[in-house]
Amino acid sequence: MEGDYLERVRKEARLGRHFTPAQFERAARGFREMYQTDPQTVLCSPDVLERFCEIYALAGDAHKRELRYEGIRVSAAVLEPGTVAFEGEVDDQRMGDW
Question: Which of 16, 34, 15 is nearest to 25 (CA)?
Fold first, then answer.
């Protein structure tokens, strides 16, 4: 849509090193519920990325290939241990009154 203003948004969650698939999915759902859109990227602290690979049967692949979660790019980032950050863009219509 021409002229729409997009704002970059981010939601971080502390998962710890031994999170479950349900905890990761809940964190992703939290982003979707807050911003009414899917994240465009998932940034993980190195320990979260390693655990992500263990959970989703990608053990050892954290540094070898492009990782995806529900089609969304997942990558390592400089974050506090145990942290994941979901990022995306929303327009003023989706942002609502928050």
Answer: 15
Q: 74: exposed, middle or buried (C-beta count within 10 Å: 0-12, 13-18, 19+)?
A: buried
Length of the chain: 98
What is the pLDDT, as a whole number, of residue 56?
Answer: 80
Q: Which residues, at least 6 apart from 4, have a Cβ–Cβ distance to it below 8 Å?
A: 91, 92, 93
pLDDT, tens only, 36-49 = 999 999 999 999 99
Tokens read off for 43: 């940034």
Q: Please tell me whether residue 45 adopts helix, strand or coil conformation.
A: coil
What angle, 0 to 180 degrees and rounded to 10, lies between the N-to-C axes of helices 21-35 and 46-55?
A: 110
For residue 57, the 8-state DSSP code is: T
Joined tokens for residue 33: 């519920």
At residue 55, what is the residue type?
Answer: I
Q: Which residues pair with 8 in a beta bridge?
A: 89
What six digits make up the tokens of 74?
């997942």
